[in-house]
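User: I'm writing a tutorial on reading structure tokens. Could you give me a worked example: one chain, its sequence, then its tokens, then a sentence or two explaining what the tokens reveal?
Assistant: Sure. Here is the example chain.
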Amino acid sequence: MRTRQPERGGLPPGPRTPALLQTIQAFTDRQGTFERHRSRYGDPFTVRMLPGPQHLVLFSDPEAIKEIFAGDPVELSGAQGNEMLRAAMGDRSVMLNDGDAHRAIRRYLMPAFSPAAVRAYRPVVERAATDEVDTWVPGSSVVALERMSRVTLAVMMQVVLGASDPDRLAALRPRVLRLVEVDPVVVGGWLYPRLRALPPWRGHARNLAAIDELIRAEVHQRRTGHASETPDLLDQLLAVGADTDDREPLTTQEIRDQVVTLLLAGYETTASTLVWTLHELGRDEQARARARRAAQEGDEEHLEACVKEAMRLHPIIDYVARTLRSDQRIGGVDLPAGATAAPAILLAHHDPDAFPEPGTFRPERFLGEGPAAHTYLPFGGGVRRCIGAPFALMEGVVVLREVLTRVDVVADAPARTRLRNITNVPADGAPLRVRPLHV
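And here are its predicted structure tokens:
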């Protein structure tokens, strides 16, 4: 469904510079750019972003954010806000549907992220983390982004696709890595099908086609009776509709779309979170010592607080988008159909009223009562809150424990942020010096 673009005069104030310049500024220095806009134009403010351009109205006030997340999920479309991901994730992805279709998809995915399921995945995470950290030699350096990406991709491959054909998984792994490691220009270009015949989109289109072929082969193998060695999420997708009258079995395309969505969303975001957590601990000897004690004593509440504080200080996603299909009043502001209302996670997480000294890494913020409602939004909110949030937190805690109880890691310099795909990662990959624990 195409939305009509609103007239600029019906939107909150914002910069009048060309959309291309606004987009470049947002990609290269999003925090500084958005904070300057809020300081000058107030909350909310409007920016124009390519492709489109789309009119993005950014809100950081908790009450306005609450309204957006509580709004009609059809009239405030999250699917349209994710449109540039359609080429990779597919039409049936949970991220590309609204209303009844979205609810139906979440309903059959929910069992895979129940408390019991999350507990069952812990050994998978422990093995992947142990295998990785065993290769870290004291006196050497590691690039955290590469290493944590390796861990979280191994976990998601096992959790989603199991190990029915190790050769197929080995072929799939580098292709998933390539799908993620693209810059925002390539991601934006996915909105234009004609570009897929031109480089660099042509190479990514071929890579995506190869991923599809490997996943379809895995689905076919399972359907012909070749089960995975251990239960996995693909088994659960294949079981949908098998023993109930109210649901049809999923098609191969529907299964493919959810598998790709879960691989991409579950691997990249958690890897980035772990990288920023290790980077901040590596920069703060006192915080690292406290976290190490927690790891040794089994204090997972404190380890989880470290992960949460890293997500606050370095939001993996800067904002979530809800495109209006009808005129709406949000936060006392009238917005026309076609505008995009965006809870600004980055700005909310750096609000000094909600988080005193917002630029300081302080895990203690998340012990006890924690932050006020709608001020901390790493997993979004409302009916579209990230379905894998409990799994992501468990994975972060388990990997962090394995690192901190085996080696000491030091980060010598602060890291700038760069946008990879749609997530924020350290521009230098977050190098860490590895030291023995007794140093």
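What the tokens reveal: Residues 8-435 form a domain with the Cytochrome p450 fold (CATH 1.10.630.10). The chain has 17 helices and twelve strands.
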